[in-house]
């Protein structure tokens, strides 16, 4: 009986002794499973996460200095183009004003020619009126002369008969001579007026035909001077119009160049290098193979051996448009894009790569 009790006690002692190792074994197995799960998850995330190559750009960086030089050159060229456009605008306004002024001068010259033609026609009309008065005066003088000749013949007969004195005869002869003088003076005036009427008529015809006349010698010095003035004005207007067209073409070219330069400046201002001109900027190169998982506000992480001790160091602030060609961290030439980073830990910019956690992971 005593032996049986001892046997049962030994079995209970062995049972109590084996519980502890089993619990330890279970805990070790659980830790191994959890570790493997974490390792698998870390490996999965490392495989599915994207990566970027961080770069810190400062104002004294060689590439930034070069872009700053290029930017200043573009700004100087843009200011020159803007100045050229303003100058051309002023020149075009000046040319337009000069063309308008020359047109006014030509129109005033034509109006002056028309006024001279009207004046000549009025002078012709006045000369015609004077000629009519002289003709009537000539008729009266001729009639008086014929009558006075009869009076002189009768006076000579009376003087021969002793009816009148010789003095009275001489007075009648003198009166006839005065009439002849008046007739001669009238004829002279009629000749002068006739000549003036002819001159005024020719001048009026020449001045009236001057605007539409082509070729031939000018009939009047005024017409010749007017035609010479009109030709000079026309040539000057043609020259100014040609100069205006050239200025307008230059302005269009300058405006197109200015537009293209503004587009270039817009592209430059969107580049990280431009942003780094004024302040240090954290950027990253993203190869096209990694671009799909990199979006604005995506989380940035740094890990030990790409698997362990991962921690958040910032976020992706902006993915910049436009393609760039650069070296990846393994010195391979790759195509991709730049992104602006917002790092809480700026030392993370010294890492070879940073992981970008996909949204939802």
Topology:
Blueprint: H1 2-48, E1 50-57, H2 62-161, H3 166-209, H4 221-270, H5 272-278, E2 281-287, E3 299-304, E4 308-319, E5 324-327, E6 333-343, E7 354-357
Helix pairs in contact: 2-3, 2-4, 2-5
Characterise the protein shown here:
The protein has two domains: 50-58 and 280-357, Beta Barrel (Elongation Factor Tu (Ef-tu), domain 3), CATH 2.40.30; 75-244, Helix Hairpins, CATH 1.10.287. The protein has five helices and seven strands; from the N terminus they run H-E-H-H-H-H-E-E-E-E-E-E. It has helices at residues 2-48, 62-161, 166-209, 221-270, 272-278, and strands spanning 50-57, 281-287, 299-304, 308-319, 324-327, 333-343, 354-357. The radius of gyration is 59 Å and the shape is rod-shaped.
User: What class would the helix/strand composition place it in?
Assistant: alpha+beta
How many helix segments? 5
Strand content range: 5-15%
CATH superfamily of the largest domain: Helix Hairpins
Known CATH architecture of the largest domain: Orthogonal Bundle
Q: Summarize model confidence as the mean pLDDT.
A: 77
CATH topology of the largest domain: Helix Hairpins
Poorly predicted ranges = 214-218
Strand order of the largest sheet: 1-2-6-4-3-7
| CA(first)-CA(last) distance | 68 Å
The secondary-structure element order is: HEHHHHEEEEEE
Count of spatially separate domains: 2
Tertiary shape: rod-shaped
């Amino acid at each position: 009986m005593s032996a049986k009790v001892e046997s049962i006690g030994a079995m209970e002692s062995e049972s109590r002794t084996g519980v502890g190792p089993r619990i330890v074994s279970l805990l070790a197995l659980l830790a191994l499973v959890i570790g493997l799960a974490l390792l698998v998850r870390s490996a999965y995330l490392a495989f599915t996460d994207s990566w970027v190559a961080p770069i810190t750009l400062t104002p004294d960086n060689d590439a930034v200095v070069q872009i700053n030089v290029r930017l200043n050159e573009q700004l100087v060229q843009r200011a020159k183009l803007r100045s050229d456009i303003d100058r051309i605008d002023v020149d075009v306004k000046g040319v337009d004003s000069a063309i308008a002024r020359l047109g006014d001068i030509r129109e005033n010259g034509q109006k002056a020619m028309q006024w001279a033609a009207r004046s000549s026609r009025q002078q012709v009309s006045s000369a015609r009126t004077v000629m009519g008065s002289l003709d009537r005066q000539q008729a009266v003088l001729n009639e008086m002369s014929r009558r006075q000749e009869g009076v002189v013949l009768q006076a000579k007969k009376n003087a021969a008969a002793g009816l009148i004195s010789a003095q009275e005869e001489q007075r009648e002869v003198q009166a006839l001579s005065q009439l002849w003088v008046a007739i001669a003076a009238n004829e002279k005036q009629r000749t002068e007026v006739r000549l003036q009427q002819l001159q005024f008529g020719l001048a009026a015809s020449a001045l009236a035909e001057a605007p539409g006349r082509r070729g031939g010698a000018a009939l009047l010095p005024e017409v010749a001077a007017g035609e010479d003035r009109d030709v000079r004005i026309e040539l000057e207007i043609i020259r100014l119009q040609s100069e205006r067209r050239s200025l307008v073409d230059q302005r269009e070219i300058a405006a197109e160049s200015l537009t293209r330069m503004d587009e270039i400046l817009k592209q430059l201002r969107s580049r990280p290098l431009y942003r780094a001109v004024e302040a240090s900027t954290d950027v990253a190169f993203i190869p096209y193979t990694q671009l799909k998982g990199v979006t604005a506000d995506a989380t940035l992480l740094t890990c030990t051996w790409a698997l362990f001790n991962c921690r958040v160091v910032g976020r992706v602030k902006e993915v910049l448009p436009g393609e760039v060609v650069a070296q990846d961290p393994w010195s391979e030439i790759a195509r991709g894009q730049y992104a602006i980073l917002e790092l809480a830990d700026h030392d993370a910019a010294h890492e070879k790569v940073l992981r970008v956690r996909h949204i939802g992971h």
